[in-house]
Amino acid sequence: MDDAVLEKASSFIDIMKSLFLSENPLYGRVDRTIDLQPMDYYESSLFYPSYSNEDKTRLYSVFGGIPYYNRLIDSELSVRENIISLIASSDARLENEVSMYLREIEFEHAHYENIKKVYSIWVCFDPPLYRHNTINAYQITEKQIVGEVYETVANYDLLSTVMICIGTKEDERYTGLLKLLDIWLSGNSIDEKRAALKDIFDAEMPARLLEKESNMCNYSEFVENRGRKEGRKEGKGHRAKVQRAQRA
After folding, report:
1. Nearest CA-CA partner of 46 in 73, 13, 19, 11
2. How far is CA 112 from the centre of its chain?
3. In angstroms, rounded to a whole number, what is the distance separating the alpha carbons of residues 108 and 102?
4. Mean pLDDT of the chain, nearest integer
5. Parallel, antiparallel, or unpaired: how do β-strands 118-124 and 159-165 relate?
6. What region, left, alpha or beta, does residue 21 occupy, with left being phi > 0 and alpha being psi -120 to 50 degrees?
7. Which of 37, 34, 62, 36 is nearest to 48 (CA)?
8. pLDDT digits (tens, 9 = 90+) for 68-110
9. How far, in whole angstroms, is CA 151 from its chain's centroid?
10. Contacts of 155 (CB under 8 A, 6+ apart)
């Protein structure tokens, strides 16, 4: 009998580890283990090229770099509609993904005391005027209603949310992180961003981020140029139809 080769892949680390424990049949039979990392922002955005850069950021913040999740995104729907359809509606395709992930990785053997703190950071590009150039932080706190019992902070301080709202440059609060993010996320060229970071913050753009930024700019230019060509083609077709109708 020829040697059989079994390839096993899974996104749930705990499941994979359990398959190769000493009490399981696959123990000692692993020849190679590949730790395949999730895709980064640029790679994930290739799944939904028709969205704006702002919407790509929103999609990546929700669905991350998991190919299966990104493959389900419907380019005919808005970001909000995709989130509702895939996560926040009854019988949604990804409705159970969060609980499954937490159960398999974060809550191994029901040790809920080991839950890790979550930081959720939101960057708003076009907030209401009253929120321009503001940064707000939200977290869970304890309040004694009846009695004087105090819990250890680490046991309940498990979620922190930061909302960063970028605003107009004329505002006196337009400085520091707000100004840095505005420059970084602007539609300017890489050279313009690098020059601004150097002149204003005396900072150099890290080589890794420079490479990613270059890839995104090149891809954005490609999409933009393709859109122009398609627009010109449609325009010519429309003019030809008008001319034929006039001759008729």
Report:
1. 73
2. 26
3. 8
4. 77
5. parallel
6. beta
7. 62
8. 899 999 999 999 899 888 987 778 888 777 666 666 555 555 5
9. 34
10. 113
Question: For the purposes of burial, counting CB atoms within 10 Å of the CB of 160, is it exposed (0-12), middle (13-18) or buried (19 or more)?
Answer: middle
Q: Is the dihedral angle over the CA atoms 119, 124, 127, 131 positive or is it negative?
A: positive
Residue type at position 104: E
- Cα separation, 60 vs 41, in Å, equals 6
8 A C-beta contact, residue 63 and residue 73: yes
For residues 171 and 159, the answer to whether their CB atoms sit within 8 Å is no
**Mean pLDDT along residues 43-47:** 92
**pLDDT tens, 162-190?**
999 998 888 899 999 999 888 887 777 77
Q: Is the pTM of this model over 0.85?
A: no
Distances (CA, A) of 9 to 35, 54, 64, 143: 10, 33, 19, 46
Kindly list the domain boundaries of the chain, sorted by start residue: 1-115, 117-179
Q: Six-digit token pair at 201? A: 């913050």
Q: In which residue are the tokens 């493959």 written?
A: 71
Distance separating alpha carbons of residues 164 and 176, to the nearest angstrom: 12
Residue 91 gets the label, from left (phi > 0), alpha (psi -120 to 50) or beta, of: left
Which residues, at least 6 apart from 120, have a Cβ–Cβ distance to it below 8 Å? 159, 160, 161, 162
